[in-house]
Amino acid sequence: MQPLKRLLQTCLMLVLSFNAFAQPASKDWMLSLEGNYYKSKSSESNLDSQFKSNEKEWHLSFNAERFVTDRFSLGLGLARYHEKMEENTQQVLLEASGSSVHGTFTEAEGTIWLPRIFCKYYWPVIGRFYLVPRFSGSYGRAKVNASVFSASVYHAPTDDLSEIDPGTLTGWEADVKGNLLSLELAPELAYFLGNRWGLSACLGGLRYDRFGGDLDISDWTFSFKRQYWKMGVNFRF
Predict the structure, then answer these.
(1) C-alpha dist (Å) from residue 12 to 5, 24, 127
(2) According to the UniProt entry, where is the signal peptide (predicted)?
(3) What is the CATH number of domain 2-236?
């Protein structure tokens, strides 16, 4: 029994020492690459209208942080966001002389570059698994290209003929540019695989965005939906 007991004690010490070796320490540096890809489609319809939308977006960021203590770190990063959205709306109008269908098609595509500063606190949960509250501030340049086209098609009640009403043909394009300020408080999950490598996941949180330029828009978002998730890989040295 004594050899078995010594073997178990040795294995336990090895596990504990490996976990300690994998944990972050003061003056360590860590590089991380994180991103997200999200795609969604939705549609709504009733007796006299129909709405369809298609949205795609991706995000990629590179970060570098320095551990001031064994738990607290400060860092800098650069993020790029790209989003594309399409919407199609149709509405049926019934009249005595016939019926008409009014349709609107909207397309918008935007790109954002955001330098950021952030701070994190690594709260150990168990072993090499950490809960990491993160606060970040970003400020950068944003550009959105948008176009809208609308028209109405008239259907006569006595035959199957239909025609586009020339007076309803409208369309416009716009390039919107400005600066974006973004503040975010979000929980992050981190797991250190070993001395160098680790994985991270941020599943949403509280965010404030303010866009200033051709338009002036501000918005608060508190959500843990899939489109706000970020998955990353870390390298510590």
Answers:
(1) 11, 21, 13
(2) 1-22
(3) 2.40.160.20
